[in-house]
Amino acid sequence: MSKSLFLSRWPARIFVGVLAGCFFLFLGVPLVALLFHEPPGLLWAAMQQPEALQALQLSIYTTSISTLLTVLFGLPVAYVLARMQFPGHNLLETLVTLPTVFPPVVAGVALLLTFGRFGLIGRYLTPLGLSIPFTTLAVILAQVFVSSPFFINTAKAGLEQLDGRYEQAAYTLRASPFYAFRRVVMPLIRPALLTGIGLAWARALGELGATITFAGNFPGVTQTMPIAVYIAAESDLDTAVALSVVLLAVSFGLLLALRIGRGRLVG
Q: What's the CATH architecture for 44-266?
């Protein structure tokens, strides 16, 4: 009987292996084609162009700032959604997740209608001489809008999996809520926080639709790496490939490092 059970498992294993292998090939082959499309020398020469370096510097700057803002404002949101129940809880959870499911261009249009010259908030900023659209700040806001759900949902999942008795034990020792969160909760959910930060950073780095709609394409001001790739693909394929390889390398390296670090923290 055990032999028949053993044999009956092999068709399922082969079937699952074939499906998984096909999917890995589907993901891997385009990346390999991107990496080996041009000789390394040409890729390096394309990356030395001033426009490419400007786009890289701007992307790193805006992505770092947007990720910092995401953590600063997103962590309290994750805590509220994970620890508190109140009317409208499901509505707020849906609102937080919504930017992950609709097209980024829609996010750009929504931000433009909010902060534009005649937008809901922008109309009050214009008399003060403040203009947000088509500036570096617009890039940062667009990145926060589309990437924050990745951090919030990951941090929220980490908080939900944490046993609440750790906090209660801290409270019984007369720890303040802030102290308990900083010294008890945060160290225990550190792997989830690092994962969320990495996902938010990578998503912000790759943002295109909302950025080009809300911030436009101005080299040195709003032209991030994805926009530079999009523009270069129309006339200079070598530069587009070089920028794409850099984006791929940075994102892959970051996510791999976070996975290794998470494994060490959990282990």
A: Orthogonal Bundle (1.10)
